[in-house]
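Pair request: fold both.
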Amino acid sequence: MSRENQYSEDELWARIKETEGEERVDTLLSLSYIAIHREDYKECLALCESACDLYESLGAKSSTATLAHIYNGIGWSLKYLNRPIEAAHANERAVNLYREMGSSEVANALRNEAACWYDAKDYEKSLAYYRKALAEPNPEDNDFNVGRDYYDCASTLIKLEKWQEALDNFLSARKIFQKDHEPMQVAFCDEEIAYCYNRLNNGTEAEHYARKALDFAVTSDSDERLFWAKLRLGKAYKVQERYEIAIDTFREGLAIIRKSDSPNWYHIVGVEDMIATVLTAQGKTEEADEITRRLATLKETLEEVSTDVA
C-alpha cells in the first residue's frame, strides 16, 4: 500500500483504471488516506467500501490484515459521519479479523467499538467492550492505554449512574496515570473522582479531590480546568451544606466561563440552576425564583439542559 504514496491524487485516480486486484485495492486505500486527512469522511467511506468489496472478491488471495485495516477505515469514517451503530459493527468485523490473525491490534479495535457504542448511547454495550479491551492480553500495550481503559469504563459507568463502580475505576486510572507521570490525566481523574464522591454524598472526599484538581488548574493556568475544578468544589460544599461558600465558588466558576469568546450556555444555565437550588435550601426563595425566571428565556432556546453539571 505504501508505494502508492509517491503518486499525486490525480495520478491515483488515473491509476484506478489501469490496475486490478490487490494493486487497485492499494490505490483505493491510498485515496482514502488523502480523503480522511482532509476530513472528507463520505468520500473516504465510499473508497474503503469499494476496496472492501474488491478485496473480499479476491477470496483466498486476500490478506486478513489488509481486510481488517479496511474495516477499521470504514469504522472511522462512519463514526465521523455520525453513524455510530454501523461504525460499531464495522469495528466488530475488524476485531474478529485481528483476533483471527493473532494481532496486537485487537485491543485498539475493541476500544474503537466501545467508543462507537458510547456515541450511540448504548452504554451497556460500550462498557462491555471497554472491559473486553481492558481484559485483552497485549504485551505491546502501555500503561497509558490501560489507564485510559479504566477511565473510559468509569465514564460509561457514570452514564449508567453506577457511582461506586465509576469511582473505583477512576481511582484505578488515577493510580496508573500517577505512576506513568501524567499530571493532566491525574487531574482529569481528580475532577471525576470528586464528581462521584458528590453523587455518593461524601462531601469531604469530594472536596479533597476537587482541591487537587484545583491545584493543577491553577498551576497549569487553564481556564477550562479551573472552571471544572470550581464546579466540583462548589458541589462538595453544597453536599456539606456549606451554602454560602458553595454559591461563591459556583459564581467564581461562572465568571471564568462567561469571559470565554464562545461561552457554553448549557454550562452557564446548569450552574445557575444549582445556585438557585442552594438559595432555595437557604430559604432565599425570592432570589432563587428570580434566577429561574431569568433562565426561562434561555431554556426556550436550549435543549436538555442538565441541572447537575458538577
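--- second member of the pair ---
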Amino acid sequence: MKKLFVLAAVLMMLLPVSAMAGMQAASDTELNEVSGQTGITIDMAMSVSAGTIAWGDDNGFAPYTTAGWVVLAGVDLPTIALSNVTIDVGGNTTTTYLAIGTTGNVVTGSLTIADVVIGSSATSTTPSAGEIRISGIGISFGTIMISGHN
C-alpha cells in the first residue's frame, strides 16, 4: 500500500512538468500581433437600509442641559448601482493619474425616513415629528481624475 501511495505522489509531482512540456515561447513577430487593454470595469448593484440613525448631544445647551437626540427611524436609502464604471491609470512626463469614470447614474431611487423623533435617548419612541421622502434621486459623474502632488 505504501508503494502505491509513493508512486501516486511521484506521478502527481511530474504532472505539472509534463503539462509545460508542450509550451513554446512566442516570437517577437507573434507578440506584435497581440493587442490588449489594461484597466478594469465594475458592474454592481447594492441596496442599503438602516433601521435607525441617531444623533445626540449628551450635555444639551443652556438652559436645556440634559441629553437630547434626533432619531431617524425606518431609513431606506436609494440604490447604489455601479454599471460600466471604469478604473484606469495613465500619465504623462510629469503626472500619473487614476481615472474613475462612468456613463450613467451611480445612485438612483428614493430616500425615505419613516419617523423623525426628537427625544431624550437614541432609542426614543416619543411621537414622530413626521417623515421625510426624497424621490427621483439620480447622481452621476463623468470622470474623476486623481493624482498625487508635492
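Observation on the second member. Strands lie at 40-46, 49-57, 68-76, 79-91, 96-101, 105-119, 132-140, 143-147.
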